[in-house]
Each structure stands twice: as C-alpha cells, then as structure tokens.
Design a protein that fits this description.
Layout: E1 2-8, H1 13-24, E2 30-37, H2 43-50, E3 55-57, H3 66-78, E4 84-87, H4 96-102, E5 106-110, H5 125-134, E6 138-145, E7 155-162, H6 169-193
Parallel strand pairs: 1-2, 1-4, 2-3, 4-5
Antiparallel strand pairs: 5-6, 6-7
Helix pairs in contact: 1-6, 5-6
The structure holds 5-O-phosphono-beta-D-ribofuranosylamine (GRF).
Length: 204
C-alpha cells in the first residue's frame, strides 16, 4: 500500500481528483494518509475532512523564523511516514531539509508544459498570463519529481491542452485543470503505486 501525504494551499481540486481516483480504484493500492496545509483557510482542508482524511495546518505565520517552520514541516511530514508526498497546489517552496530526506518521493503538478512558463515566479494565474502573452497555441500540465531547483526535477507525465481564441488566464487555467491536471496527477500516482516509475535525477 502506497502511503500518500498531500500538501496543499488552496482549493484542492487536484486533491479531490486524487481522493476520487483512490476511491474508484483508478489509483491502485494507495491510501491518502494525511493532508498538510500552510493555509488555515484552504478549502482543501474541508475536502480532506469530508473524505475522512486526517488534516492539519502548518503555517509559517505560526513560527518565529523560516528555519523553525521548515523543521516543523519536516517533522509534520515525518509523522505520517509517507511513501510519496504529493504537492497538490502547495505554494510554499519545499525546504532543502525536506528534499534531502525525501528526494525521489515528492511530486508536483505544474500548469504548463515544462520547460515553458516554469521556474521562479511562475505560479497560479501568472503561468497562464505568460502563456497567453507569448501567444502559444498549446499549453498543458506537467507532473514531475521535485528536486532542489524550481520545476527542474524529472518529468513523469505531460498532457497538452489547446489554447483558444478569446481565452483569459482564468478560462485557460480551468481548461488545463479539467483536461490535464485532474487526469495526469492521479495517473502519475497510480504509476508510482504500480512501481512503473523509477526516479532518476535530471541530468545537468
Ligand atoms: C493548480 O493550477 C496547480 O497546477 C498549481 O496550483 C493549482 C492548484 O489548484 N500548482 P487546486 O488547489 O488543486 O485546486
């Protein structure tokens, strides 16, 4: 049984897609053992509660320094003994101490086709604003392992989504979530649960 811990900050639609796929059996032999949010108002916490998944808040606001928060996050993560940490819209940079301990066991969903529109500063609607500004005709989403860089870890799955005339960042974001993110995030977890993915660092 793959023990999955989800880290969230917001609405939690990706978390919901994973919860639903575990329930339906589309994700095989997996249990979501916990949810950690940095934001006490995240709707993702209600989704966890509704699904009977233990959830807690670990917020930088409750610690004197970033170092103290990082330590609390690491010990929070450790307390679930996860096999896989899923960043499902987690807007906090993963501390080095967490990467050192869990490298190869952390995955993230990014709402573009990496290496386009990724890296520092590309999060949330900013990704879609940049894609529309550049005039790309295709965007999409990427599930990748997390390493010490920003969006630089090995790619697991990608799915392309058409950009349409008249798209706003909000419309494009929604289409990418529906057609790509909610599909490839559960799929990547299932592939990991089945032992189909072997972690290999990105070459420099
Ligand atoms: C998604 O667009 C995801 O790609 C990004 O953050 C957003 C999270 O949305 N990393 P949700 O909280 O899963 O609804």
């Amino acid at each position: 049984m793959l023990r999955v811990l989800a880290l969230v900050s917001g609405g939690g639609t990706n978390l919901q897609a994973v919860i639903d796929a575990v329930k339906s059996g589309d994700i095989h032999d997996t249990e979501i053992v916990g949810v950690i949010s940095n934001n006490k108002n995240a709707y993702a916490l209600e989704r966890a509660a509704a699904a009977g998944i233990p959830a807690e808040v670990i917020s930088p606001k409750d610690y004197m320094s970033r170092t103290e928060f990082n330590k609390a996050l690491l010990s929070g993560i450790d307390s679930y003994s996860p096999d896989l940490i899923v960043l499902a819209g987690f807007l906090v940079v993963i501390p080095e101490i967490v990467i050192e301990k869990y490298e190869g066991k952390i995955i993230n969903i990014h709402p573009s086709l990496i290496p386009s529109f990724c890296g520092t500063g590309y999060y949330g609607l900013k990704v879609h604003e940049a894609a529309l500004k550049r005039g790309v005709k295709v965007s999409g989403a990427t599930v990748h392992f997390v390493d010490a860089g920003t969006d630089t870890g090995p790619i697991i799955l990608q799915k392309a989504v058409e950009v349409c005339d008249g798209d706003t960042p909000e419309i494009l974001q929604k289409r990418i979530m529906q057609q790509a993110e909610w599909v490839i995030m559960p799929k990547a977890i299932d592939m990991i649960a089945r032992g189909e993915i072997v972690y290999k660092k990105t070459e420099e």
